[in-house]
Fold these 2 entries.
Entry 1:
Amino acid sequence: MMNLDRTEKLLLAGIPILILLGFVLPEWVVNYIQVSLGTGLVALAVMIQMRAGLVSFGQGLYFCIGGYAAGMAGKFMGVSDIFILLIIGMLVSLFMAFIAGFLLRRYREIFFAMLSLALSMILYGLLSKLEVLGSTDGFNIPSPTYLGWAPEGDTAKHALYIATCIPALLCAALLNRYLRSPMGFIGEALRENEIRLEYLGTSAHRAVHIKYMIAATVSGLGGVLWALALGHVDPEMTNWTTSGQFVFISILSGVGNIVAPLFGTFILEIVRVYAVEASPNTWQMILGVIMLLTIIFLPKGLWSLIQRKKASAEETTQK
Amino acid sequence: MFQDRLLKKGLLASVMASAFVVSAFSSSAVAEDKKEVKLGVVTFLSGGAAGPFGIPARNAAELLIDAINKGQLPGAYSSVGLAGAQIAPIFVDENSKQKVADYKKLVQKDEVDAVIGYISSGSCKAIAPVAEEEKKLTVFFDCGTSQVFEDIITSPKYVFRTSAHATMDNVAAARYVVDTVKDVSTYSGINQNYAFGQDSWRDFSGSMKVLKESAKSVSEQFPKVFAGQYGAEISALLTKKPDIVHSSFWGGDMEALVIQGGGRQLFSRSKVVLTGGETGIERLGSQIPDGTIIGARGPNGPLAEDSALNDWFVKAYVDRFKSLPTYPSYHMAQAILGVKSAADKANSTDQAATIEAFKGLEFEVPSGKISMNLAGGHQATQGTAFGTYKFDKASGKGTLVNIKRYNAACVNPPEGMKSLEWIESGFKGAVCK
């Protein structure tokens, strides 16, 4: 076999479970799962950079590039096939990250954060000025087709949901594989001691560049999936508030496991929905209190709850 | 072995979690009560647009829903409830990244009978196709983009809009300028650099080209939205000395422009047109220079004609919220009264009957009469008005004088024609009284 680790098994087993849930749960919950998978992927991209000590405050840039690339392919070139849209979104993000990477790979810490933020806000300003792309209102994206198959009504909803689950979880599994690879461990080394890393014969610049490109591609994928679920894109996708949310989700859910940001995004989304329902005028306060409590009592994020249980379970089995 | 056991545990946990989710959600579905109609109300309750738009709209919704439930409205609306059914509002914040998912939740989980909402044009664009898909009566009350029925859903069944789209304001502004200002040879604009500002300038300058061919545009300023400082733009306008300065600024930006421009004689060198200037009248008073041309995104506030309904609305609003209703409040009142008129006419809260009655409906609102006569009876048109500002020192209050009214067919495109095409065609089919 392929030597799958626990997380990968969980992710692969999660695909049929999630798809099944799509038929069982009420549609509106499924809808939240679907959009959470899209934004969750971007949080995941933020998290893998965090592992290398890089905090990207502008990951919305690639989220937006992915969404707009797919949207523009649909709007101007009439492309509606989901596979082509996904590939376009990822390739454009990858290409942009390849170029921007030459600049960003030279910076660390707050400088990296601010520079990534600046780049994302440049795109925001640009898109807000472009009337052809609907300016701040954005534009709508038609429903996708699947290799020539154009489903309608409920079938279309299920098809898009399934088409979101599979790439999202596969991508997470691949990222997990990447983090366990030598390339992935370079990230940790980068965070701990860059000079020593260079002495070991690896270029820190190159490692950051590659990491940045991987994160961008994953965010682009998330952007396409999210935009297709919403049927609409607007420059808000690359605004700093959106990017900030991704950082927050990764901090809140913890960087310990690849599943954490995906799960954390959904949990936060559901908490938000019920906070709005309970108190439409002051829901941010409820959300803020929950976030504060999480940071105070679970400094390593929500995932540490699960890890702690695991650790104690291992202890008892050892005894 | 150990790994497998953990995997099983994980699976078990996720199945249990999902079972919990299912039971939690299904139990919240309440049996339908025919005596009560659930109304989803979506406006900005937080963020930058909440203060100037979202909160005044929410206030108007609370006021009207209470009054309807108690049967306190004057005239034709004095009956209790929607065709007898009490209204139970569910307020939702439009300031959300997941607008579509929130809408679906409102329809599917909260099982609302209708949704009234959306201030941002971006929201309306995203929600319109979803509302048709969900087959739920949805009334857009404020968003201005003409694209909703012109490009996005061309044959609507479930979506209505009870306010005229933004084209009307700028066409009327151009007409007012041509009607009241002598010798216009140059004009310019200062608008916020986002969709609403760009569209407003496009419509105004397009209208000027048609109405006053000899005049030409000398300067287009597009500062950032919420910039707050307009020194450079004001300098540019001062050096060009245009006869007319058009601005669709609103809220705090508009007030900043008045204060900064007023101090630098912008208003005395050029005639300034503020299409959304109405909200500043109460707050700025004498700071708005006399002679400024002011609009209110429809015949709202001080531009509304006297009527029992308007008197009641203004008085009840001031009594309850200690401030005057602004145009978002008027727009919200329009949407709620539209739904009430339709339900009362159908004498039923059944969705199909209400929609049938809503199509092409004419109804009275505080700002006058609304006719649902575009987009197959789904899009409202309304006459509008502009006025010139005059500060009355004796009473210490600003007033609008030389008010000119424009009937609906004069400032709105006819059925089947897109706004921009209509302006460029030289207002083909416009009937001005």
Entry 2:
Amino acid sequence: MAPRMSRRRFLQTASLAAASVPLSKVVASAQPTLAPGTFAAPGSFKDTKTVTGGVCEMCFWRCQLVGKVRNGRLVKLEGNPKSIDNGKALCARGNAGIKLVYDPDRLKYPMKNVGERGKPVWKRISWDEALDECASRLDGIVKKYGPQGLAVWYHGASAHYPTAFFKFLGVPNMCEPAFYQCRGQTAIAMLHTLGFVPNEDVDMANAKAMLLIGTHIGENVHLSHVRNFITGIERGARVIVVDPRFSSAAAKAHVWVKIKPATDTAFLLAVMNHLIASGRYNKKFVEKWCNGFEKFKTAIGGMTVAKAAKICDVPESQIVEVADILAANAPNVAIHPGRHATWYGNDFQRIRAHACLAALLGAYEVPGGIQKIERMSTGHVHWPEREFKDDYDPEDYALAEMEEKYPFRPPGTPTDMIRETMISGKPYPIKGMIVWGANPIKTFPCQEETEKALKNMDFVMVTDVSPTDITMWADILLPEACYLERYDHIEKGTQWDCADKPQQFIAPRMPLIEPMFERKDSVWIINGIARRMGFEKDIPVKTQEEYVDHCLKEAGLSLEKIRQQDGIYIRKGVCSYCHAQKQHSFPTSSGKIELYLDDLKDEGFSPVPVYTRVPEPPRGYARMIYGRSPVHSFNRTQNNAWLNHEIPENPVWINDELAARMGLKDGDRVALENQDGKRSVSTSVLKVTPGIRKDVIFLAHGFGTFNSAMTVGYGKGIDDQSMNTRTVIEPETGCCGMRVNFVRIVKDGRPIDIPA
Amino acid sequence: MNSDSGVSLGHIYRLLAIGMRYPDSAWLNEGFMSNLVALLGEAGFGTESAGLSSLMPPDMESGQSLADKVINALQVEFTRLFINAPAGCPAPPFGSVYLESCGSLQAVTTEKVRLYYRSHGFDIADSSIIPDEISVELEFLGLLVSKGEFDKEGHFLKEFFRPWFVTFRDIVLKEARHPYYPALVRLIDFFTSQEVE
């Protein structure tokens, strides 16, 4: 209803006689938000200062950065000019970090779900109330079910302190789903084969040839990684890309092997077999540094070029060509192990094959090869050792140990085992789930199972920066300061080009700005819970700053010292090319690269890499494979306004001839439907291209956010994970295969079969 | 307008500012509500006044559980409208969200508001406070009029407050599920619109 009078008239006549308390008294009692300040002359906008010490976390490459800060407001991010890793550069995501900080959708205050899990109704609560409730609910579960009644899914640097606390509590099952379902099995396969985990330390910049299987550099944008790749190409390296799809890397390749998906191991075995049969492997290196060559040679002898060509659906001549290029350029060849390689549930053996091929070529710790990079070491913060009641030992309740499964698993309990126990209550009940920085809804297959598991909990506590999909299942939701607002991770590395003067650096993450609203860091939150659970005296550090300083002490450094060095401490390093010669061994039990691994045989697995067939697509469907979008880090950047503006959805790639037969054209809006009849909630745009095989459909992973509280990313593109209603658990590692589902296209609500 | 009005405009602005804070028993009590109801009534918003009046327990002190119920309902509503909610909180109470093309917090317009405060002798009391949050802007308006600086009040309203408040008001009127916030934004509109027009 419109008012009957003007403000002027109102103020002349109003008395508020009806009010029980004088207005002046009411307003005087509230704390003011403004205070007397000093006069700031016009032109203050120029007072922008550079704050050093930032370490990016828009992805996990962790480039070092600086912030331009004006009046406490972050106005720009740039690469730290002192960095010997990313230098002055930042990628699109790094630059867009500023839009994460100031995203209005971010979590701001602790909240309680007064609705139901999955359909939350939020109520802001105080930190005291939130921590009281978390502590009492966690404590209640421990008292009723024992510490094994809790489990943790976590991700990111800020989870280190919380997971250490939950370990102290005696929680036996913790998992980093985004590591398990990414490069977890790659790391473990490499560890058992080489004795160390090279990660992505492959010297592409100085390689004479590169072989990329399962890596999409260019779509997977890690700055120094991409620079390494591009520099290698500039310096004349021959590039071989094995991929069912014409990826960004394939566009730069001399040889694109348009391989049938799920047959990569057969391809690698045939290349190795051909190299051995033709005597063009590095005999000297193999003799000196490899274990079990003869048994290996015999075991892979059956995978001829002709056989592999049929399996892989590629010409025999191309397999030979690849082998020839590698042999001609050995040992200076980069055999890249890739990232996010949990595809078919048999990937451990494929990664072993990568490592064995590099060994046959002698491509270790030489220019172009896989490197064992020596980084500076830092310390850890530990909670004290603890005596549990009734001789409780967490190890006795670690699910994988109890069931004697997955002997080559990455650290922690396989994600799926935790989920299964949450649902079944067997072998004992798990009734409390702590999720810290992870988004398991998007990270691993069979979402309905994850939701069922979460609904079965007595208590779910989630800590995150943004209202990601998993937050919808929280009872208590805690807002964390983001990577630009907190201390935590200590980045350690070397100069990006192995051929340059050896240097090592340390860059601890320092805040560029203060957190807004009531966002807190993990040490503050966990200490609050620990105190309320009666562990005040056990708290190892009081602040994140103290945490980082404690870790730096081992390197003889401190935050103060590194601040004086503009956020990055640099010292003389060690030439990685000289490691093998210096150490005269690989840190495996044999002291050599394990072409033949007895440990695998002992556990009932093939001791040499082996190709296993996987089910073919049913009639009318194609295999769904996934990859990356160059401006996104899967789901975590989907709500970023700048990045979403650039790439708002994930095009569905389909072969052009196939599309023509199906009556589809480039730009059509489509959904997907999988072999179990599960249809994607949202749609995306069809990309019709000759650059993909006819038996696969490709889309970038991480799109199609479910939580409508993420107003920018919500419902944009198709969530490939929602199509994964089936998975294959790798028996060696417990990691979930994510390329084992099949889809067909849905247009205008009508499913269209993929022609044979 | 002069500063000798029967009811101080400075106090009214401050009441409106407090009313846009997160509901809390520290301020959401009988004294506050009775003033708000009276203001609504005297400004001609009879329906809204009656609506809020009927929500209040007759005696907030003795009807504590009822008061808690009202506060609890308002807390849920405040969280949904202004903090985080499925489908996104519909009305983030920050100017820059409406004034910047891609809806950021702490944007250039936020900085201009803070500079304006500083050029008039004020600053945010604590770095966690967002300068262009509605309650902060209302409090600043109250400080200006308390100093008799009505020209500056008009300038601030025209340049900074009204350009986004109008959209904010419309969203709250459309999206609110509790009568409190529509009543409050109508009253804010009443006290901030006419001096600009």
